[in-house]
Structure formats: C-alpha cells, structure tokens
Amino acid sequence: MVNPITLEVVRNALVAHADEMATVLCRTAYNMMIFEVRDYCVGIVDPDGNIVAQNTGGLPIFLADLGAAVKGAIDIHGRDGFEPGDVLISNDPRLCGQHLNNVVVFTPFFHEGELIAFPALRAHWVDVGGGSRGFGSTQSRELFDEGLQICAVKAYRAGKPNEDLLRLIRDNIRFPESSFGDLRAQIAGCRLGERRLGELWKRYGAITMRACIHAIWDQSEKLARAAVRAIPDGVYEASSYMDHDFLALDETLPIQVRVIVAGDEMTVDFSRLPAQRKGPINSGESGAIAAARVAFKCVTQPNGVVNEGEMRPLKVIIPSGTMLSAVAPAPLTFWSASLPTVIDTILKALADVLPDRIPAAHKGDMSGIAMYGRDERRKRPFICLNIFGGGFGAKPDGDGVSGVVSVCQGGVHNAPVEVQEAYYPLTIEAHRLRIDSGGAGLYRGGLGAEIVVAGEQEFFMDTHLQRTKLAPWGLHGGGDAMPMDAVMERLDGTTVSAVALDKQPVLPGERVIVRAGGGGGYGDPFERPVERVQRDVIEGSVSVRTARELYGVAIDAALFTIDEAATRQLRARK
Amino acid sequence: MSENDLSIAIDIGGTFTDLVSWSRRSGRLSYAKSLTTYDSLSNGVFDCLRFAGVNLSEAAWFLHGSTIAINTVIQRKGSRTGLITTRGFRDIYTIARGDRQEAYNLLFSKAEPLAPRDLTMEVDERMNARGEVTRPLDLESARIAVRALVEKGVEAIAVVLLHAYRNPAHEQAVKAVLEVEAPGVYVSLSHEILREFREYERTSTTVLNAYVGPIVANYVRELENRLKTSGFAGNFLVMQSNGGVMSASVAREKPVTMMESGPVAGVIGAGRLGVALGIPDVISFDMGGTTAKASLIEKGEARVVSGYHIGGQGQGHPMMLPVVDIVEVGAGGGSIAWIDAAGGLKVGPLSAGSAPGPVCYGAGGVEPTITDANLVLGRLDPDHFLGGQMKLDLPAARGAIEVRIARPLGLSIEEAALGIVKIADTKMSLAVREVSVAKGHDPRGFALVASGGAGPLHALSIARELSLPRVIVPELPGAFSAFGMLMTDVRHDYVRTLICDLASSDPALLASCFDDMAAEAAATLKRDGVNRDNAILSRALDLRYLGQEYTLTVPLVGAVSLDSLAKARQSFDDKHLAQYSHAAYQEPVEVVNLRLVAVGEIEGRVKSFASVRDLRHIATGNPKGARSVIFEQGAMQCPVFDRDNLVVGATVMGPAIIEERVSTTVIHPGDCLTLLPMGPLLIEVAE
Prior knowledge:
Shape of chain B: globular
Structural class of chain A: alpha+beta
Strand content of chain B: 25-35%
Radius of gyration of chain A: 25 Å
Distance between the termini of chain A: 63 Å
Structural class of chain B: alpha+beta
CATH class of the domain at 74-216 in chain B: Alpha Beta
Number of helices of chain A: 12
Strand content of chain A: 15-25%
Number of strands of chain B: 33
Number of strands of chain A: 21
Largest sheet of chain A: 8 strands, antiparallel
CATH topology of the domain at 74-216 in chain B: Rossmann fold
Largest sheet of chain B: 9 strands, mixed
Number of helices of chain B: 16
Radius of gyration of chain B: 26 Å
CATH architecture of the domain at 74-216 in chain B: 3-Layer(aba) Sandwich
Oligomer: heterodimer
Shape of chain A: globular
Distance between the termini of chain B: 50 Å
Helix content of chain B: 25-40%
C-alpha cells in the first residue's frame, strides 16, 4: 500500500503540473479559440492511453479522452519507436473522433531510459486547411473537405525539427502565423511537462510513482461507484431531437438514450441514435463517450478532478456507424454540435430519480459564430470568433443562471464587445438578455443573450445553430424556455433566417441578430411567490403579460404594483 | 521637516488589529495588538493606540490598512448602487463573461451583481474603438436615466460607457448631468477608475468602487476626524493593493484600490527587508489562521499584476486595478484535516477559523486542524501560546487526531499528525512554486521570508521542499503587515489602452499619452504630500506578438523614441522566452496598453533596519528549556530559546525551537540559525 501522505503529495503535484502546462498554452496562444474560448485540454497520458492527470478548467467534453491519440501513436510507432526530443502531432479523427481543428501535440517522457508517459496538449487551431475556417463550414460533405489529416507524425525527431513536414503543413493552411504560434506554445507546454515529470520521478522513483497513480485511479473509482450506488437501480429513458444535420434542413434527428443503473455501474446506451449523416453533425465514437462521461461526472463527482479511474463504473453502448460513432469519410466539422442536447437528454432520463440534483434543460447549443474577411483599414485578413451565452435550467432550489455557455463549455468566455471592435472592423450594436426567454416555474430558467452584429465594412459570417426548434424543456411542472434563433436584416429591408450561414456576406448597413435560448423552468409557476414574479418584472426578466399568462400574477404595467384580487382569481383558475 | 518623528502603522485584519510604530530619531519600535471591532472599526484602532501608549500629537505619519473595502463586498453591505451604460448594453454586467468555472456543477450560481438589473439605465450615445463619436450623447436620455435612479433611492452611481477608455467625453458629460440632477450621490466614472478596454471588467471595477465608495469615504473621514481631535496633525495615508500608499483624500475617491491593503503590506516589507539584508530576491510567505499567501520579490520589487477576482477566480467580482501578485491557498492554522469517502487524507480548504478554532483551543472545535497537529508534534508549547495568554489542550488535540485520522488510516497519532503537517506543507509549497518555479524563477536563488502567526512554524519544511537555501524570520512576524506599511512608498498606477503595431507606431502619439498620465500623477502626488523631487515616474508597455491575447509588461527606458521602443521589443522577446520557454523574434509585436507608475518616497518610512531595535541588551544565548519534538526523522530532544535571549551573530544548530510572543519558529535537524544584527533570524536550510 502506498503511504497516504506521499499519495496526496503526488496527487496535488500531478494536477498542478498539468495546470502549469495549460497556463503556458493559454498565455501564449495565437488564437481566440484557445485564449478566450478555452478550447483546449492538457493531460499526462501513460503509454496504454490512460489519463494520469488532466488540467482543471478547459472544455468539459475533453474529459479523459487524450488517451486515444497516444494509443494511436503507439500502434504506429511501437513502444520502442520514440526517443527523447520527439514531438508528435495528431488530429486524426479515426483516433480522436473529433474535428480536424483539434490538434494534439505530445512528447515522450523517459525516466532512466524507460518510456513512462506523454505530456499532451490538444488545442483548437483556427485553420487546418480544407474548405472551412473558424468553427467549420456547414457545406462540408466528407472529411477531405475539412482539412489536412495528420496521424501521429513526428514534427521533431530527437529534438530536430522535420522542416519538410512543417513546410507542408504551413503551405496548406490559411493562418500559418496563428497555427504555428499555437504549435510553439503546445511544444513549450510539453517540454515543461517533461521537466516537471522528470523532477517528480527522480524524487519518488518509478515504483512509488506507479503505485501512487494506480491508487489515485482506484480512489476515484471508489468514490464514483459509491455515487452510482446511491442512484436507484432501473432503466431510464428519454428522448429529444436535433434540428437537422446542417444539410437536410427540414429533417429532424431523433435522439433517444437509455440509462441503466445497476448496483455501482451505470450504462449509457446510444444504440438508437440515428445512423451517420451526410451533413457535418457527426462525430467519431469519442463524441458519444464524451457526452456520456460529462453527464456521468455531473451526477457523480461534479467537483472532483478529472482522471481515468472515476470513469470505470461507466459503460457506453455505441454501435459503429451512428451519428456519434461515424466512420470515415463522414464529415465531422460540427462534431460537438449535438453534445449539449445529448447530455441534457441523458440528464432528463435521470431527472425523476434525482430530482434534487438535475436542473431543467439549458439552451442546448454551442453557440459559436465566426466573422471574417479582409480588414480594409489594416490591410490584412481577420477572423473573429465569439461564443455567446444562453440560459441554464432552473435548479431544484433556485433560478437558472442567465447568459452562460453550454454544459459542454465550462470555462469558455464570450468575446468582449470592446475587444471585437478594437481588433476587427466590426460593430456590435447590442449584447443583452432576452426578456421572457427563461422557462416559467417555481424556479425560473435563466435568460438567453442576444447579440447584434454589424460591420464597418463588408465581412463574411458563419453560424451553425442547433436547438432552434426544440425548446429547452422544463421539469416537474416548469415551462419550456425560448429556443435559439438568428435572423439577418438585409439592406432591402427583408429579414431572413441566419441559423446556418456559410460565408454569408454582410454589407455595411446589414445586421445579424443571434439569440440564445433560455433555460427551462422547474416546478409549477403558479407556486412562484408573487413578490418574486414582481421582482422579475421590475428587473425586466419577465414581461407583464407573461407574469399574467404563465405565472398568474397581475401586475400594473406602469407602477409594477400587484393587483391582489386579480392575481387570486388568475391563480385559482388552475 | 516636521518636529514630530513618529510613524504609526495600523493594520486591521480579520481577527486582530495590529499597530507598529517607529520613531525616526530613536529608532524605537513599539507594537500592540487588539481585537478587531467589527461594529466600529475605528474603536479597535483607538484601542490599539491606547495599548501602545503612543502619543498622536508626536506622530507625523499615520499609515493605515483596513479590510473595510473587501468586507463590504464580501458581506454585501455596500451602498444601493446604480449603473449607467450605453444603449443596447444594459446586461453586460449581468452576463459577465459567460463562463462556468465549476464546469460539471449543474447547480452553480454566478456572483450576484452589486448593481442590480433594475438599477441599470441606458443612455443614447456611442463611440467606436478609435474614440470617434458615432452617436452623440443625448443629454435628455442621461437626465431621464439619472432621475430614474435618484427616484429609486440610489446612494452611488457608476457610469460605464463603451470605449470611454479611449475617449471619456461622454462620461464627463454624464458627470455634469449627475452634478445637477443627483447632488450628494457618490459617483464613479469608468475612465477615472480604470482606463483600459474590456467592458465587463471595467464595469465590475467601477461598480465595486461605487458600491464601497460611500461607506469607505465615511470611514476614512470619521477616522481622520477622530485622529485630528486626538491631536494628530500629520499625514494620513492609506495602504493600496498595488503595494503603495495614498492620501486619505485620494482613498475616498478610489476606495477600490484598498481591497487587498493588508496582505500586500507584508509583501512590501519582505522585499525591503531582503534589500536591507543584501538578499534582494525573496519569496514572502505569510500563514495565518485560514490561508497561506505567497508572493515573489525580485531585486526588491514585488510583482504587480493587473487585477484579480474578489471572492474567487472566475466566480467573484473582477477588480482589474494593479495588485501585488499573491497566490493564496486554503491552508492555515485552523485548516481541518479529514478523510474523504475513498480513504484519502485531506487538509483544508475548510477551516475552523478563530471560532470555534482548533480542537486544542477548547472552544468547541471537534475537527483536528494543522494547529492541533503541530501541538501533538511538540512544535507548539501548550503553555506558551500567545505568550502564555492561552493554554492549549494537548489531550483533546491527540484525541481528535486519533479518532478522526489515525485510527481510520491505521496510523499512530504521531504519524497522523506528521502526515497532516506534511500535506499542508505540500499544499503551501505548491503556492510558493506557483509564484516562483511556475513563472520561470529558480527558487534556489531566493530566500523565504516567513510571517504570520504560523509562517515560521512551517517555513523550513517548505524551503527544503523547494530547495530554497535560506529562510528569514523578521521581527514581529505576527504583525508583519503593519510593519510592512512602515516601509511603503506612495504609489499610483496609470494605464491607457492604445492598440498599435510597435514597429510602425508614432513615438509622438505614445509620448503625448505618457505625458497625459504624468500630469495626472503629478497632481495626485501633490495631494499625497509628496515632494516632486522625491517622486520617480516609470513607463512601461504591455506588448504581445500579433495574434496573441495575453500581454507581458516591459519597461520603456528613457524618452519615447524609435531606439527605446526597439529596446522594449528586445526585452519583450527575452521575457517571453524566460517565462514561457519560447519566443518569436521575427514576428510583429503589438502595443496594447501604456502604463505609468508614479512612486514617491515618504519621509516617515523606515529606511534603515539597523535602527529598528536595540539588540545590545543583555542576552545570554542560553535556552530556556527543552522538549521532545517530532520530525520526519523521529522524536528528538530540542532546546527551546526565547527569541529575545538570542545573541547577535551566534549560531544555533537545529533541531531547535525559537519562541516569541505571537509566533514559534521550528528549526529542523541540520538547519543553522543566526540572529542578524538588524534583528531578523536567518536560517540556512540543510539539504
């Protein structure tokens, strides 16, 4: 047995080192996807592909999934195929199951000649060539449209750069300064990781370190099993649907999930997901696993650090060839677009047995928009990415939070208005919350945000919104929220939908209005105290009309006073 | 120069109010401690003055640090605050940055805004990022907004208009409206508080200022009056988060700068002490009842960063004014040791605080804490805590550790206590590592300056863990924040966002921007009572490679010229390489912010440590006793010394215990202690 004190020391150190690597990446990255959107993850992975430690923060859906990239590299190069100073790059979806923009950089760490682990950093590059930039294009029809496929190649061998390979990559991407800046930051992070691991292994030795790592996994597993055991056994089902696959815009896609809780194990069954699609909403198998893992972590150990052991009680059933286990060359650009909804659907299945742990549905969309083109004043190309917030579901004990990122995005930030306008030829005309967008309930859902984007000059815009049809649902008598929405106001005075724009020119005088959904309500809105509804109206979160129609509270539109008699009458009508 | 030669520093902390005073003529230091009086903080100040027996009419300088600003925020006891913003952006403050720091917690909440949504009004106006008016301010809309807020009974109003950092004309026009329509209401304009882009962070900082403004202004005014009535006729200066002091009148306008005033003073003191001892690279380490704080000082200068979050990173309220970089970790004497469901031993972050406190305080605490572990290990003396004022209950501490930790883990009581201390030491080491190793500094070149009641108990273990070769324990380690205030300068930080390519930037434009800040600095220094000749202005640029977001601040030496700008670029490449292990010498560099720091030396500052205390009194150097203390190597019989009875220059080999009234220093086997002529303990750390 490992000394419990040494164990705690090692546990703290491993996470601190991963966090330190993440800081280097985040502070020196060259693209908004990393420093604002936090679309990265950092880990230390053993040669069997197990996560030894992962950074805190970063994207929740990158949950203990860096291992696949390392495992793939071992398959190609063999365990003996690495030497100190190597740098490997991979974005191969057959290994990683994500879109090509997610580029993993990792380096082997040796202790006394033995291959111990790989520090690894995944970051979303702004561009990897192909037909799209930024978040990706709705026009993608196969993987080859989406850019370069890089499968565990060595960018450096024994410390020496592979200049030919690097030039090949550089020549095939649109923003090489940005991507190569990110690559430098990723390599610096890996090198730092190697140094820190070196210190740790030197101090405790390989045997103790190995024992500590296994003990950390075992302890996390034990905690997770205890949490699952506390959930009543049973088979729980729920369904929802996606708007479309970004190609067949009128065809919704049913999402059906089954959650089986038996003793201390939980199984998430995805076998009834739609078959893989022609449009780019697919992901590889890791999308399904990520969705199941996020939901699992949310209901078992929401506040613990991430590692491999805590996922052992979770089984995922995912046959090959579904929307979340697509095989090549299916298009994967928007691999994460369905995940917020899939996660919410898993939670919905458990909502009745965990009424005090699971909130109503949230906006259910990743909500990324891209504005780009040529900056005429600065005479250079530009690309601005922004992620805007929606409502979170009302909680079992309080209102939902307004204007926050999806369940998949945790530490992701929106882009400040002043930053967007200072760097790019854009004018943000408004950034505000949508009145009445939160679902009604004893506890009200959070409000969605609305952003109005225009330009000082012509620019292009991409959007790829989901959940414009299926409203975020309420729970236990709570009402639904307003769903996502986007429109474009044209120069000719017409208004057209803007939920799936692909390189759409936006002329001076035109504007695009994107609106995030709210969160669903929790509990009967007629039970919401009258004063709370009055407060909502005074604050501008709920309109006088909604107060009357959904909450049964009559409020004077000018003075915001309550008409007690009318309220009694309204609420009695139930 | 004034006849009066006394400098008095008073620091109000969570539990105690500390006073340290210094006579310039005699070099005499005095010290007093009183309980913090939450109902009226100034009562505690006057208790302290009475205990110390200082005569206010002999004082030329009164330096003050207080938790009033931060407590007003944390306890949400601030003013009813309104906010005026640009039309279309009413919800910037509520939306914040949209992130959820507890990524997997479905039941999370955001910090409640300090200015609620119904007290937020929009006005019709707009500037672009270049400071050009794209929609003129509609004064009528401003009047309507102000009247509505006055009608709703606000006591303070924050005004934050988009791009006001670039062109403040509209904010100034709204101010004119406020003067007419809302006399007596406390007003904060964003461009006067933080002249930097990013609307949410600027809004939060400005709202914080307005929120605490009326309360802090009243407090400062009341204290000023009470001091005056009691015969004080000198300068009243207030400690800021940036490591400097400011006049009370400036504090009333910018109380948001006071947020971290206490802990920061200790950092400044550690730096000054290091310089005086010829050890200019130090890490200050301050461990109190609930947290431990670490900060790095290089060449005598504390690292100042642009802001932090009050109430937790990413969850609290951003305050983006310069603040001394302090890393805090939830490990203090009161931190609780516990076992999680998987059988892992944890220490903190929950703390027993000062009430009920550790088990050994006998005040109702049942969960074992770090202090209990130190007592069990013999590192603390049950009969000498707080100079013997408070007796500690050793059997109770042993019992709690046995039942809650030792038995479940199958360890002996001593092993469990050692484990608790070891885990706490590791956590604190990670904080020290974060300010040093993680920022590219090799700790082997630094000395650890240990302060706080518990700092000297743990300093040697932490130093050894990180290979720091030396530990310094200053005089009055338990009141080091107040002591540190006696060593501070007046300091003001200015910033202007001006985004441009460095290589093709217009030196004349940059120069005029710096001149603007210098003029503002000169006016403020005058109010602080600082002689212009004693002031130093330094200029710096926030730079980054084009495409990056985060900047590094590098000094701009000499006048703004193509030459000095080129040198700044070089410093940037070097700093980037040192901090992040890579640099891009060929890539274009962008200017984001211009910074100016004005530092003015005050006459009442402790300048020479040689004069701090008379150490020629009769000391024998003999221990007052001995006791068994448990170290990792096992139990050892240790001599126990009274700090006052140590002889200057003589060495003491560890293991040994040095006791003084409010702290205990543990010297481990092999460590070597010397009492320096200036008063601090210097301990060479054994390998």
